[in-house]
């Protein structure tokens, strides 16, 4: 999403028109021409009209847009709907087309806000857009540009062809291994590109998680395909339908394996728990278990609509006269179905749990419960 260009004190795109809802003569409304030679009164009248329009549009805009807070989400995170809208912003593929100059403009605008040197006329809407652009492209810890295919906003566009490949009918052993490997490789790159880089992490941990995910995904997918092929009680049509559902258990189990292998240190060392003021109370292994459970559940729910709905929808569409008479349309139709399922499933799945989850202090370790008077503490569950 591109930042609007600003000229003088008026953001671009705002029409300098009259205020039909204002009383005659107020806010620069219709007045007799005059005010000196050369139309000086007319120029003053036009400036008043423009100022009036800017104020009215600014008030209308602020009515639906919250005040800007640097580094904070625009939408409320305590409700599912608020989290859903927040993650829709994060995965917005339009940010993939932001140019380098627009990115620099967004970063500079946020720097100006941080140091209190904003140009006149900058609105909350522009500031939220600037933050959205920066968060979509720049890693928050390293301040480096994330490679486009591995951004969260590129996860759906670049991941959909892989999903289509996973769901192709009549898979061979080689194609099954290839698509499962490619899917887990893409997931590993996305996870690494968007990792928490505040603390140094050995590359061996990521390699371990990647290899575990690939091995588990390929093993389960190949094993299930072999069992289906040996099941003589199934008709060829039933066997083909069941094969289309094989990618889901393979990908879901690989996702769980990836989470456990890459974050197992949290189970041993614990994760930070904070009070309502953001103060660190301690490090809790119990909170780490909750965080990993919530993350693993999200990783199971995520591929469900993507890998289950398209086979069901395609099995119904393939019986229609359109696809029977035009079998070459099957792949484009399946691609569109996969894209729609992916676009819906991703924000729904990652919105299930808040990024900062709450847990009752009484359920944590005794030493943590004794260290605070807060009834609940919060922890970062991760994505």
UniProtKB/TrEMBL annotation:
One of its GO terms (biological process) is positive regulation of cold-induced thermogenesis. Pfam families: SFXNs (PF03820). Residues 1-48 are annotated as: Disordered. The chain crosses the membrane at residues 209-228, 240-261, 300-317, 329-353. It is a multi-pass membrane protein. Residues 26-42 have a biased composition (Gly residues). It is found in: Mitochondrion membrane. GO terms for cellular component: mitochondrial inner membrane. One of its GO terms (molecular function) is citrate transmembrane transporter activity. Keywords: Amino-acid transport, Membrane, Mitochondrion, Transmembrane, Transmembrane helix, Transport. Belongs to the sideroflexin family. This is Sidoreflexin. It comes from Podarcis muralis. The gene is SFXN5.
């Amino acid at each position: 999403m591109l930042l609007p260009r600003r000229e003088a004190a008026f953001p671009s795109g705002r029409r300098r028109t009259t205020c039909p809802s204002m009383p005659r003569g107020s806010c620069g409304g219709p007045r007799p021409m005059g005010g000196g030679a050369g139309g000086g009164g007319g120029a003053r009248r036009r400036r008043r009209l423009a100022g009036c329009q800017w104020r009215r549009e600014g008030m209308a805009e602020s009515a639906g847009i919250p005040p800007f807070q640097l580094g904070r989400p625009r939408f409320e995170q305590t409700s599912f709907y608020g989290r859903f809208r927040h993650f829709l912003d994060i995965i917005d593929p339009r940010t993939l087309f932001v140019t380098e100059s627009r990115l620099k403009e967004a970063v500079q605008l946020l720097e100006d806000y941080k140091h209190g040197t904003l140009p006149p006329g900058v609105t909350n809407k522009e500031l939220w857009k600037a933050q959205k652009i920066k968060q979509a492209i720049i890693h928050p810890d390293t301040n480096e540009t994330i490679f486009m295919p591995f951004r969260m906003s590129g996860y759906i566009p670049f991941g959909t062809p892989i999903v289509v490949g996973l769901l192709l009918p009549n898979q061979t052993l080689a194609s099954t291994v290839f698509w499962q490997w490619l899917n887990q490789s893409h997931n590993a790159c996305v996870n690494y590109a968007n990792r928490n880089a505040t603390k140094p992490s050995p590359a061996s941990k990521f390699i371990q998680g990647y290899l575990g995910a690939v091995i588990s995904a390929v093993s389960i997918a190949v094993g299930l395909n072999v069992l289906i092929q040996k099941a003589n009680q199934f008709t060829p049509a039933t066997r083909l339908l069941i094969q289309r559902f094989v990618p889901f258990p393979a990908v879901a189990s690989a996702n769980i394996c990836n989470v456990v292998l890459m974050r197992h240190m949290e189970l041993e060392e614990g994760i930070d728990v904070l009070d309502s003021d953001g103060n660190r109370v301690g490090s809790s292994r119990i909170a780490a278990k909750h965080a990993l459970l919530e993350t693993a559940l999200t990783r199971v729910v995520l591929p469900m609509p993507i890998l289950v709905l398209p086979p069901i929808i395609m099995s119904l569409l393939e019986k229609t006269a359109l696809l029977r008479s035009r079998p070459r349309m099957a792949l484009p139709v399946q691609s569109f179905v996969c894209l729609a399922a992916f676009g819906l499933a991703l924000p729904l799945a990652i919105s299930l749990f808040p990024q900062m989850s709450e847990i009752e202090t009484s359920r944590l370790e005794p030493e943590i419960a004794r260290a605070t008077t807060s009834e609940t503490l919060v922890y970062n569950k991760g994505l």
